[in-house]
Design a protein that fits this description.
This protein has a single domain, classed as Sandwich (Jelly Rolls). It has four helices and ten strands, in the order H-E-E-E-E-E-E-E-E-E-E-H-H-H. InterPro entries: Cupin_1 (IPR006045), Germin (IPR001929), Germin_Mn-BS (IPR019780), RmlC-like_jellyroll (IPR014710), RmlC_Cupin_sf (IPR011051).
């Protein structure tokens, strides 16, 4: 059993075959990620980025801002299975229900009070797993699960999180369902949500 578990783990996140693989954004080679830059051309700046500590603007409908550091901003992350975000929330601000299709996320509250949660799969009856966090608390969102965060305190909230992919991706549920391009047929959505088509039309106008 231990050997099988090891094989499964290695299959999900393979071990590097070299010291590093700095992303070559100019390469025309198509791989699962980015092609590797010639190691002889690699410099310290390929492994460095600044500004994660800066607070973003929360003057938007969600009342939150997400400062992402993925392989796109830090090419040295390529193939290393890691990225990070710094999130700010105004009072009442949210990061709406979303999915990271390629990463588990572990979040630490730096300041304030934050409600977090994720929904289990249909195999576990779509249960909501939720917790109110304070400064210094840590919470993990399993890969592929719909999850959210909400500022439930009286002041601002700041968190830092790490994700187990250099390019974790984000699928915001409402955007994906009502804002796809081209639009998903409203009769499909009407049946899915058990509402009239006119209600679906109204939702789609917002996205």
């Amino acid at each position: 059993m231990k050997a099988i578990a090891s094989i499964l783990a290695d299959g999900f996140q393979p071990s590097p075959l070299q010291d590093f693989c700095v992303a070559d954004f100019n390469s025309s080679v198509l791989v699962n990620g980015y092609a590797c830059m010639d190691p002889k051309l690699v410099k310290a700046d390929h492994f460095f980025v600044s500004g994660l500590h800066l607070d973003g603007s929360t003057s938007n409908p969600f009342g939150s801002s997400v400062n992402r550091i993925t392989v796109s901003q830090l090419p040295g992350l390529n193939t290393l299975g890691l990225s990070t975000v710094h999130v700010n929330y105004a009072r009442g601000g949210v990061v709406p229900p979303h999915i990271h299709p390629r990463a588990t996320e572990i979040l630490t509250v730096l300041e304030g009070n934050l409600r977090v949660g994720f929904v289990t799969s249909d195999l576990d009856e779509n249960r909501l797993i939720t917790k109110d966090l304070r400064e210094g608390d840590v919470f993990v969102f399993p890969i592929g699960h719909v999850h959210f965060q909400q500022n439930v305190g009286h002041g601002n909230v700041s968190v830092i999180a790490f994700l187990s992919s250099p390019n974790p991706g984000v699928i915001t549920v409402a955007n994906a369902v009502f804002g796809s391009n081209p639009s998903m047929a409203n009769d499909i959505l009407a049946k899915a949500f058990q509402v009239d088509k006119t209600i679906i039309d109204q939702f789609q106008l917002h996205f």
